[in-house]
Amino acid sequence: MLELKLADYKAEKQPDWCPGCGDYGILSALQMALFELKRDPSQTAVFSGIGCSAKTPHYLNVYGVHTLHGRVLPVAQGAKLANPHLTVVAVGGDGDGLGIGAGHFVAAGRRNVDMLYILYDNEVYGLTKGQAGPTLGLGEKTKSLPKPNPQSRLNPLLLAFAAGYTWIARGYAYDVKGLKELIKEGIEHRGLAFLHVLQPCPTYNDLHTKEWFAPRLYKLQEEGYDPHVPAGLSPEELDRKMMLFQEKALEWGERIPVGVFWKAELPTFEARLKAYLPRYPEAYPARGPEAPLDLEGLLQEFAL
Amino acid sequence: MEEFTWRVGGPQGGGIETAATLFARAVGKGGWWVATKREYHSNIMGRHSYLDVRLARKPVQAFRERVDFLVALDGETLARHLGEVREGGVVLYDPKVLELTLHKLPMLDHRVAEDLAKRLGQADPSLKEVLQAYAEAGVQPLPYPFEAVADRIGEALGVPSLKARRTLNTIAVAASLHLLSYPLEPLLQALALQFRGEVLELNRKVAEAVYREEAPRLPFRLEVLGPAPGRIYLTGAQAAALGKLAGGLRFQTYYPISPATDESVFLEAHTHLPGADVAVVQTEDEIAAVNMAVGAALAGAKAATATSGPGFSLMAEGLGFAGMIEAPLVVTLYQRGGPSTGLPTRTEQGDLMFAIRGGHGEYPRLVLASGDILDAFLDAQKALAWAWRYQTVVVHLLDKFLASLAQSLPKEALKVLSLDGEKRLSPREGFGPYQRYAPGEDGLSPFIPIGTPGGFYWMTSDEHDPLGHITEDVELRELQMEKRMEKLELARKEIPLEDQYTLFRDGEVLVLGWGTVKGTLLEALDHLEGVGYLHLRLLWPFPRIAPLLEGKTLVTVEHNYSGQLADLVQQETLKRVHHRVVKYNGRPITLEEAVEALKAVREGRAPERLVLRKGV
């Protein structure tokens, strides 16, 4: 592969996000992470849903697929399963992933396909002018809402945990360095990684702003929290880990933790596919089998 | 005998399916061509289900209105089907059910019970009385105590009653064949195909024991025609799955739905065989199914999904996405009775317009429909090839009737087609974006799977420029819209005419059909003069058939309410369709219905719209 510079990962296309948008930070962190991991752009694909965040792929020099509202995970999983050698990152907003795409969010957790999903959480539907997203709290009223939010907040970390994501973390859009490290870890994790990114929306969300977040955020790992869940943990030890996870995932208000919450080792979907498709590692769908189809053999069971 | 129809009815899950397969294989071994139709409820166990095995000296796909031989494995079958046994035909039944009255049959539809009660002039007649009424009308009742025979044979073999009664299907088939003076040997061969080990041994002994019983002489017998090597017997869903494998399918997604799921399950069950490497993923819903298949296609895998009406409705957005980003995708659509949940296990051709038009905006898609089991095998290959040639969505239409229809075929007819024409970009050296959507000379730009070395590009469901970036520029919009839509003209030009339609016979009255009316109409032609048949294989882009229709009395025959093909023909050819023969009760058109309807047209006594209503 060619020696690439950090700038090579950035596309010519200029972002059209609002000034001060958290998306810029996430884009930079993703670009830096791919560069530092030396991922070959031609073997890397970034998928997105619909919304402001979903424009991310257009600003990166890798294969970029801007899919449909809520459907980023099925498309990304399909590509990764067809060619397991690809580096796959899926991105989308809170409405995209936890509103219209919630079913896919949950089902993806059950599969554990080896890829990273980054959820940009600004609590609002930005591109349609600030309606309440699924992570906005009950009774909260941003300046874009005519009335306080009558629906309650969904906790992305708890949902990811319940669904079976094997790596769960939270980052902050304005902490680009910290975010970059999380993205790198998420990409390198073997299995489905979920990165929840807190991201102010300077245009529509006047409740949870940069000023609101700054004094509240703290880093889990700096306080000695160990997310690692090794295989073969005793049931008691696993229980303790889960309680600790839940406590941290629910922490919101005066103190808000960021960092890695959960890191488990479980077989990926690619490994599970091998059970009924023994030749999958070599003859994955994008490549195809070595042997021609034995139609004659297949027809034997239909002999009259 | 030239042909014969044997029907077996009983509770779902009670072995009648195995019985029909055994019967079909046993007579197939003796040289008869067979076709088996399956009717069942949306239910796991207990509700009424029946199968017709039609045998003939030449290949058949149509089914008759009257059966020659009915096997009733329960009382409900008598109540439902006695009216469909031909005069002089036979009904084999267990006499222990005769004391039951219609009201004691909990699953029998009220409408059927009421009709029978009215016919007999009684409030709640017993099955004995019902049977008697039909016997007077010419049906031959043959009591056969299936369970008692099972117990007796079981006792002789030292097998407990519960186990012996599991062979009721074999007993029913053996009794039928024995009564028909058909030899035992082909049945033993059929049993060997169906069962293994201890179970085979037991069933074999049971069949032999049945053949030792006294059997009354019937006025007709079934002879052996001769050996029939090289034939196979399979269903439409199996044929479609095999066709997908022959066409190089590598990735299939599905969400469970009747009657489409059989295909995906078949694929999953055979992935260990050489060359049958298909990753089959059961998704959370049909939205995921279509989008995951698109993702796999983008990475370079031949990908498809299979579904039925409700699932296809959910896929509409994903299909537009595939059309917009020019992803090669096959959707195998097994139509069933709609709208909404409709008739989940009954047949219909109600999705033609939806397959062609469903979704917002406009994008090129190809729609082809299979008329029979061999078509299903060949069309599945064509669908994959066309999806990759034209880099777009191909909808392959089948229906419930075809999915569950089983037929004997000469094995050599299942040919692997050599279809190519996909335009892929070769990897290159260096680093930089590909112009994925720059129009090529023939309108097609090379397909570049994700992971192709040397570069990258973008794909978006938004309108885009040649690199795949979002644009709202008027000229780029026009360019890309035209680039995509012109693929339809290219397809119409390139696809051989024999893959677009077949004029089986010309006539002053010209029948137009698509999909599974094919077999019935082809056989109906044998009974009609001056009637031709034009079978449409490619439904979109619509073939240029107008010159063939000139000066003809045009009739469409299809399984839907409005006559969707008739609308399409009128729209695309500007020719008026004079008669629409339609059927929408979920049951396939019978041979007699087709012949009668077309005779009426030929003789000028048919209305513009003719509704067919037969079926059980």
Structural notes for this entry:
Chain B: Residues 243-482 form the Pyruvate flavodoxin/ferredoxin oxidoreductase pyrimidine binding domain. Chain B: Pfam families: POR, POR_N. Chain B: GO terms for molecular function: oxidoreductase activity, acting on the aldehyde or oxo group of donors. Chain B: Keywords: Oxidoreductase. Chain B: This is 2-oxoacid--ferredoxin oxidoreductase, alpha chain. Chain A: Pfam families: PFO_beta_C (PF12367), TPP_enzyme_C (PF02775). The complex is a heterodimer of chains A (304) and B (616). Chain A is of the alpha/beta class and 304 residues long. Chain A has one domain (11-302): Thiamin diphosphate (ThDP)-binding fold, Pyr/PP domains (Rossmann fold, 3-Layer(aba) Sandwich), CATH 3.40.50.970. Chain A is 31% helix and 18% strand. Chain A has 10 helices and 11 strands. Chain A has helices at residues 23-36, 72-82, 94-100, 102-111, 156-163, 176-188, 210-213, 235-250, 269-273, 295-299, and strands spanning 44-48, 63-66, 87-93, 115-121, 124-125, 131-132, 167-172, 192-198, 217-219, 228-229, 256-264. In chain A, helix 3 (94-100) packs across helix 4. Chain A is globular, with a radius of gyration of 21 Å. In chain A, 50% of the residues are buried. The mean pLDDT of chain A is 96. Chain B starts with a strand and ends in a 5-residue tail after the last strand. In chain B, helix 7 runs parallel beside helix 9 (197-212), helix 8 (185-194) runs antiparallel to helix 9 (197-212) and helix 10 runs parallel beside helix 15. The mean pLDDT of chain B is 96. Chain B folds into 4 domains: 3-212, Pyruvate-ferredoxin oxidoreductase, PFOR, domain III (Pyruvate-ferredoxin Oxidoreductase, domain 3, 3-Layer(aba) Sandwich), CATH 3.40.920; 234-413, Thiamin diphosphate (ThDP)-binding fold, Pyr/PP domains (Rossmann fold), CATH 3.40.50.970; 432-494, no CATH class; 499-611, Rossmann fold (3-Layer(aba) Sandwich). Chain B is globular, with a radius of gyration of 27 Å. In chain B, the strands form 4 sheets. An 8-stranded mixed sheet of chain B has the order 6-5-4-1-3-2-14-7, sandwiched between helices. Chain B has a 7-stranded mixed sheet with strand order 9-8-10-11-13-12-21, with helices on both faces. In chain B, strands 18-20-19-22-23-24 form a 6-stranded mixed sheet, sandwiched between helices. With 616 residues, chain B is an alpha/beta fold. At the A-B interface, strand 1, strand 2, helix 2, helix 4 and helix 10 of A face helix 1, strand 7, helix 10, helix 12 and helix 13 of B. Strand 2 (63-66) of chain A pairs parallel with strand 17 of chain B.
